[in-house]
Amino acid sequence: xxxxxxxxxxxxxxxxxxxxxxxxxxxxxxxxxxxxxxxxxxxxxxxxxxxxxxxxxxxxxxxxxxxxxxxxxxxxxx
Length: 78
What we know:
Layout: H1 2-17, H2 24-47, H3 51-64, H4 71-77
Helix pairs in contact: 1-2, 2-3, 3-4
């Protein structure tokens, strides 16, 4: 159940990022929140012993949000 909440949060953050109304600081903040939502999905998959899905989530952070603080952590955990 928890993983689905993070997936829902990810979808909302992606929609917000599509808005042209965000300044650079807000965009960075939302990107940070998005990377955390993806990271938490990876953690949950890892707890569920599904390493393939966990790796996919961790590497998505690097692919989609390479400039966020969690990108190096996602790459390391992958």
